[in-house]
Amino acid sequence: MFHARTLICALFLAFALPAWAQAPANVLMIGQRLDDLATLDPAEVFEVSGGEIVANLYDRLIDMGNGQPKPALAESWRLSADGRQFVFTLRKNAKFHSGKTVSAEDVAWSFARAVKLDRGGAQLLSQLGLTPQNVTLRARAEGEQTFVLDLGDALSPSLVFNILSCYAASVVDSRLGASVEKNGDFASTWLRMHDGGSGPFRLELWRPGQGLILSRFAGHYQGAPAIERLALRHVPESSVQRLMLEKGDLDIARNLSPDDLAKLAASPEIVINRIPQGGLVYLGMNMKVKALADPKVRRALKLLIDYDGIARNVLKDSKTVHQTILAKGFHGALSETPYRQNIEEAKRLLAEAGYGKGLSLTLDVRAASPSIDIAQAIAADFAKAGIGLELVQMDNKQLLTRYRARAHMLTLAQWSPDYPDPHATIQGFAWNPDNTDGSPFRLLAWRNGWNIPELTGLVQGAKSERDPKSRMAAYEKAQREALANGPYAVMFQDMQIMAVRTTVSGLKAGLAFDSLRFADVKKEAKK
User: Fold this and answer.
1) Which in 5, 71, 321, 446 has the greatest CB count within 10 A?
2) 252 and 354 share one domain
3) Residue 40 lies inside a defined structural domain of this protein
4) Is the peptide bond before 370 cis (omega within 30 degrees of 0)?
């Protein structure tokens, strides 16, 4: 116990210092930007860093592999003939970090709290027809090991399984939750900074603005992870991450600039992992702004961006050019890239819209590379057509707060799907059932003021379409409409790029932002 506490204290002391003498052999040291980390409650987490951490602290009923569901807390399941009921049988050997056995009642309570809290997780689980009024009836325990999910309407089974595999469906220790609940908050205040999961790792300490320490859970149903601890250190500067990785202070660096990646690629002790992701980098255009409500202006902005030039010269091929709202790798994704920089055509469109003498706009941008580098390139492109673009730099939490309040003109944003089903992204970009300022549905179309009742109906219908061909046809139409008329200039598809020391193996990641797993990571002694 003394050794463990001494190591933890030393690790946190290292968070406050420029460097650690050498990453301990039993600790995986990870350097990354953690400026978006606001909560670790799986019912309200909505940012990339939080989603990644929650995925290693909590288990779900199922996981997804190669597009198919596979057992996790549930060892088996069955579907009713009409597609409206899913029955899951839980495994008997799963335990929470508290030592309590995971039961169907814990699953039911977790679904109910997520829906009734009405935060990030509720938006996802509501797609299953769950509401605060019906959740206790439709998501219920029938005995210790049987969890029943009743849908209001039959849905595509792949959609249901993909939602159940995401962070919103994480299972929380209901007994622990009841013991820390305050004033009917479903333990949300406590769970923002603590851990109530059953995952392969448990939260040991979190120091906001500095980092976190996760320790392996020896009682996990799949067995204890090989690595004893994960230390995630907030290191916002790419060059500092690179230097720490080279010296052995870090085992993994997460947010490196193209220049730093190029330098590290020459090292025999470091491997650059490039994993395709479902995330997209795009320019959001707020149609509540008069100029941006004009489709000619929006098209002009799309034609001013030098997509290939930014990818080649700024990003140095760390991301790929992609212009439709569904990332490559998802079933039904279109790969068309119709927009190329055409300054004369953009000028013509601006003149027709009444802005031939120029236009002034502001762009909210995360004050970090590569976001600021992309924004500067866009500003230079826009200037060629007389558009003055003021860059408003801020941290990611500020940017998201302004974006979610529709307080922006333009924003340089990144979209990461919550689960690997096309609906996760299509709904975000092309579904807006209520465009009023008080709307409870505040996804990307709403944030950018895109009022699309017909397209919203199409997307809503695709969610319930059980015929795969008809479903994909609807998603194709949504992609084409967003490409032609949407308030987005989708520019690049993301790749998860990690510089990893050769002593580390076993990292796993997929298209969804919460797919990064550390349970199988191994770290060899430095040779």
Assistant:
1) 446
2) no
3) no
4) yes
Query: CA-based diameter of the chain, in Å?
Result: 73
Q: How many structural domains are present in the chain? A: 3
For residues 203 and 257, state if they share a domain.
Answer: yes
- The C-alpha atoms of residue 169 and residue 108 are separated, in whole angstroms, by 10
DSSP string over 11-57: HHHHHTSS--SS--TTEEEEEE--TT-----TTT--SHHHHHHHHHH
Rounded distance between C-alpha atoms, residue 63 and residue 65, angstroms: 7
Residue 397 to residue 386: CA distance in whole angstroms: 31
Question: How buried is 472 (Cβ within 10 angstroms: 0-12 exposed, 13-18 middle, 19+ buried)?
Answer: middle
Q: Which domain holds residue 220?
A: 27-33+199-275+496-523
Contact 217, 97 (CB under 8 A): yes
Residue 459 is part of a domain; what is its CATH number?
Answer: 3.10.105.10
The two counts, helices (H) then strands (E), for the chain are 19, 19
Same domain, 123 and 257: no
| Local confidence pLDDT in tens for the 527 residues of the chain | 445 555 555 555 455 444 445 678 899 999 999 988 999 999 999 888 999 999 999 999 999 887 789 999 999 999 998 889 999 999 999 999 999 999 999 999 999 999 999 998 898 899 899 999 999 999 999 999 999 999 988 898 889 999 999 999 999 999 999 999 999 999 999 999 999 999 999 999 999 999 999 999 999 999 999 999 999 999 999 999 999 999 999 999 998 988 899 999 999 999 999 888 889 999 999 999 999 999 999 999 999 999 999 999 999 878 999 999 999 988 899 999 999 999 999 999 999 999 999 999 999 999 988 899 999 999 999 999 999 999 999 998 899 999 999 999 999 999 988 788 899 899 999 999 999 999 988 999 999 999 999 999 999 999 888 888 999 999 999 999 999 999 999 999 988 899 999 999 999 888 888 889 999 999 997 65
Residue (of 283, 238, 245) closest to 410 by Cα position: 283
DSSP per position, 180-233: H--TT-TTHHHHTTS----SSEEEEEEETTTEEEEEE-TT-TT---SSSEEEEE
